[in-house]
Write a structure and sequence with these properties.
This is Programmed cell death protein 2. There is one protein chain. The chain is α+β, with helices and mostly antiparallel strands and 444 residues long. It has two domains: 291 residues, no CATH class; 49 residues, no CATH class. Helices cover 26% and strands 17% of the residues. Helix 10 runs antiparallel to helix 11. The two termini are 39 Å apart. The relative contact order is 0.16. Bound molecules: zinc ion (4 copies). One zinc ion (ZN) binds next to loops.
């Protein structure tokens, strides 16, 4: 199991100290056995410290009994997948682009959930993060999936609808977040973590997927070959035009000719035909490193205030010349000021694509634009259990850069996507998942 944050890491140890736990980190690709006593006597040392090989000397030790404001934000970065199988579902990956690794491979969202609320096309997979809550039995495995319609005109409509969610219940959206979670004992995965020795296998096949997008359940079958499956008419049409027309004939012929009947059928399996999915990356994580190499001592001493200032989006950065310069430059304009603040905070780790803050005390999103922030009242309650929803993570515009999206017509462009989730992380019903709440700010 991949522990998203050191917080989860510690609560894992606290709740499971009597069982034979194995905590492991995907970036190591091998299990490691933490020595509980050792960890307790030294405070929390983030697990990332172990795979840094000393390269970024930004280890941050958080004392268990000190002010919780000291907890750093966890940052997500993208990396090319280590190997073609490292992002499969039984490795519990956090990933961006490509196709989702469904935690529950059978109960996938139905037509209404998986379609854009405006153009009704199937949504495209943006990212998923593996974020278990070890003190919540039903969330031993927990994955948040973010999907988005790739059309900017839909996202502009979504801008208006997100304000109405509180009062309207379900407004149409072009950005959707699903939460899946499973207890440790479940029908899909072993109680024990993967071994990473080549013997790990998926637990049986999942639901047949659309052979165009590879993302959603393939409920519909091609009427001619009875082999190709689709999530929607739209994907059937684009697949037909982009080559299935020919392949379909071949499948029909080869099924009449017994000499090699399954060859073409096999070829269709697990191959995603669509070439417009966003490029696939693994998301790796690291606690926010607040020290600059030049003034390491001072920053170490000051970690607390800087950490809390960064998460509260009001940096206490009077000493920071860069910040002051930017602030003066944009003094008259709130949005520009907000943008400058945002840039300075992000600038400390310019490649971050995600900021994760569940259970980080006082954490609030960094808003790049001062207008268009939701108030507390604009955030709906959990649609499943009615508990309040809290900020859990935000996606940064840097991801657009890695997706190479900047120059295409009508391609999505956002300043940030903030995700609010059920504070109780309630157990989903029989559908296997529940909706969480995204808030999108677009570029000024
Ligand atoms: Zn749309
Ligand atoms: Zn599809
Ligand atoms: Zn066909
Ligand atoms: Zn809930």
């Amino acid at each position: 199991m991949f522990i998203w944050s050191s917080y989860d890491y510690m609560s894992q140890i606290a709740t499971e100290r009597y069982s034979s736990i194995r905590v492991y980190d995907l970036s190591l690709q091998k299990p490691m056995d933490p020595n509980v006593d050792d960890l307790n006597s030294h405070g929390i040392s983030p697990i990332e410290g172990d795979d840094n090989d000393g390269e970024g000397d930004c280890e941050m030790v958080v004392e268990e009994d000190e002010n919780e404001d000291r907890e750093p934000v966890t940052l997500g970065f993208v990396e090319k997948p280590k190997n073609p199988t490292s992002l499969l579902r039984h490795f519990f990956p956090s990933k961006a682009g490509g196709v989702p690794a469904w935690l529950d491979p059978l109960n996938l969202p139905g037509v209404k959930s998986r379609s854009c609320g405006f153009c009704e096309n199937p949504l495209q997979f943006l990212l998923q993060i593996y974020a278990p809550i070890s003190e919540n039995e039903s969330a031993f495995h927990r994955v948040l999936y973010v999907f988005m319609c790739p059309s900017m005109s839909c996202l502009l409509k979504d801008q208006h609808e997100q304000w109405k969610c509180r009062t309207d219940g379900f407004s149409p959206r072009s950005v959707k977040v699903f939460r899946y979670q499973l207890p440790r004992d479940n029908v899909f995965y072993s109680r024990d973590p993967p071994k990473y020795d080549g013997s790990d296998k998926p637990s049986g096949p999942g639901a047949p997927l659309c052979c165009w997008c590879g993302t959603w359940k393939g409920d519909k079958v091609c009427g001619s070959c009875k082999t190709a499956r689709y999530c929607s008419e739209n994907h059937q049409v684009v697949h037909w035009r982009s080559g299935h027309k020919t392949v379909c004939q071949r499948i029909i012929l080869s099924s009449k000719d017994d000499s090699n009947p399954t060859d073409t059928n096999l070829q269709m399996k697990n191959i995603v035909a669509c070439n417009t999915l966003w490029p696939e990356y693994e998301i790796v994580h690291e606690d926010e490193c607040l020290s600059d190499d030049n003034d390491g001592d001072e920053v170490l001493k000051d970690n607390g205030s800087i950490a809390s200032s960064i998460v509260s989006s009001k940096p206490n950065a009077e000493d920071d010349e860069e910040f002051n310069a930017l602030e003066n430059k944009f003094e008259a304009d709130d949005d520009n000021k907000s943008w400058a603040t945002f840039q300075v905070c992000i600038g400390k780790d310019p490649e971050q694509v995600l900021r994760y803050c569940r259970d980080v005390k006082g954490a609030a999103p960094l808003w790049p634009v001062s207008a268009g922030k939701p108030s507390k009242q604009d955030i709906p309650k959990c649609c499943h259990c009615s508990n309040p929803m809290f900020y859990e993570f935000q996606i940064l515009p840097q991801l657009l850069y890695y997706f190479d999206l900047k120059n295409e017509a009508d391609s999505v462009d956002w300043a940030t996507v903030v995700v609010y989730t059920c504070s109780a992380s309630c157990k989903p019903d029989r559908t296997g998942f529940t909706h969480e709440f995204p808030w999108v700010q677009i570029q000024p």
